[in-house]
Design brief:
The protein is mainly β. The chain has four domains: 2-86, no CATH class; 93-172, 3-Layer(bab) Sandwich (Phage tail protein beta-alpha-beta fold); 176-196 and 281-346, Bacteriophage T4, Gp27, baseplate hub, domain 3 (Elongation Factor Tu (Ef-tu), domain 3); 202-278, no CATH class. Helices cover 15% and strands 46% of the residues. Strands 1, 2, 3, 4, 5, 6, 7, 13, 14, 19, 20, 22 and 23 form a 13-stranded mixed β-sheet that branches. The protein has a four-stranded mixed β-sheet with strand order 16-17-15-18, covered by helices on one side. The protein has a three-stranded mixed β-sheet with strand order 9-12-11, with helices on one face. The two termini are 46 Å apart.
Length: 350
């Protein structure tokens, strides 16, 4: 049940208890570099008008759930519909910065100071990121670049999370919950999907030469054109790599232009990297379950879904990528789970 729900002016200190006026309360946490979102409807009783920038605080069963600020308000039929974001919203601010060699922990600390938000590094990274220039980028984009590079190098996934009024840098999974979601525990419905829509099993790295007419190919299988180039003086060098599952999926090819000074070995290395990244099915697992405030993005849970196992897929412990909490008398959650090769074990149903 709601144990605190207030809206207050940011500077004056005036505060209103709106717990008896609110409905359709929804809280969303997402690992995809997005601020936590808190939406609700509010009956208008004439006592006050919510204003942009007002502070929203919400607690459920004495647990601190959301602290943030009103960014959007609509009014219709004597009711306000309000959208508030937590402090990560200020990481959408744009800036330009030259990053020295530094860790993602260092960069997180720097951008939070520039965004003027309370923050804390929970899990420290020692991996040194290369120096780079961020020109007119959001702080989220700056962090994403460093987090992606850190993950590729260390196989450790870092993410940003608003722990009430403090923005934190965490490593996923942050908390391995003892909670079991399954046939006999919390689960009310699920959907599972696998797809090769975004997969590739053939990668071609192309190097354009505008001064020669000769064309060289390493297992070349197709041509490429660039509008505006002179066909008489333009040629391409290709470096291709392929996967065996072309026999199963058909040919799914992507192309990338080589860096200007890349040699054949570097082109081959880049092609191998892209193939490793793209040559895979993607899996989507969505769960509907009874509400629990521990089920937030970044934590992991244990799954026991017999129907899914019977269909040939066993998914055990996996992390929550996105969590939507619907507060009310029927408190429930919608979860999007991280399901990929490290988490998915394909077992035969025969």
């Amino acid at each position: 049940m709601i144990t605190k729900f207030t809206i207050g002016r940011r500077n004056s200190g005036d505060t209103w208890d709106v717990s008896s006026l609110a409905s359709n309360i929804k809280w969303v946490t997402d690992l995809n570099f997005a601020a936590g979102t808190f939406t609700f409807d509010l009956l208008f009783d004439g006592s006050f008008y919510p204003q942009s920038g007002d502070v929203v605080e919400f607690q459920w069963d004495e647990q601190k759930i959301f602290f943030g600020y009103i960014f959007k308000t609509t009014f219709k039929d004597k009711k306000f519909s309000i959208t508030a974001y937590d402090k990560m919203r200020y990481l959408k601010n744009e800036d330009s910065f030259v990053w020295p060699v530094s860790t993602i922990s260092d960069r997180f600390d720097t951008v939070c100071k520039m965004a003027e938000i309370n923050h804390k590094v929970i899990n420290v990274s020692d991996y040194k990121l290369a120096a780079e220039v961020a020109d007119s980028k959001t702080y989220f984009d700056m962090l994403k670049s460093g987090i992606d590079s850190t993950q590729k190098a260390t196989n450790q996934m870092y993410y940003v999370f608003a722990n009430y009024d403090v923005v934190e840098l965490r490593k996923a999974p942050y908390n391995n919950l003892d909670i079991i979601i399954g046939d006999q525990s919390l689960l009310t419905d699920f959907s599972f999907e696998k797809s090769i829509d975004d997969a590739a099993n053939s990668v071609r790295i192309i190097k354009k030469n505008s001064s020669e007419s000769q064309q060289t190919t390493s297992t070349a299988t197709a041509d490429s054109e660039s509008a505006g180039d002179d066909p008489k003086t333009t040629s391409f060098a290709y470096t291709d790599v392929k996967a065996h599952d072309i026999l199963d999926w058909g040919k799914l090819q992507i192309v990338e232009n080589a860096k200007d000074k890349a040699n054949n070995a570097q082109m081959k290395q880049r092609a191998d990297e892209l193939l490793k990244e793209k040559n895979r099915e993607t899996y989507t697992l969505s769960l509907d379950c009874l509400g629990n405030t521990s089920l937030i993005a970044g934590n992991s849970v244990n799954l026991q879904i017999s129907e899914l196992s019977k269909a040939g897929f066993y998914v055990g412990n996996t992390a929550i990528i996105k969590a939507t909490h619907n507060f009310g008398s029927d408190y429930n959650c919608n979860l999007e789970m991280k399901v990929n090769e490290p988490w998915l074990e394909n077992s035969s149903s025969n």
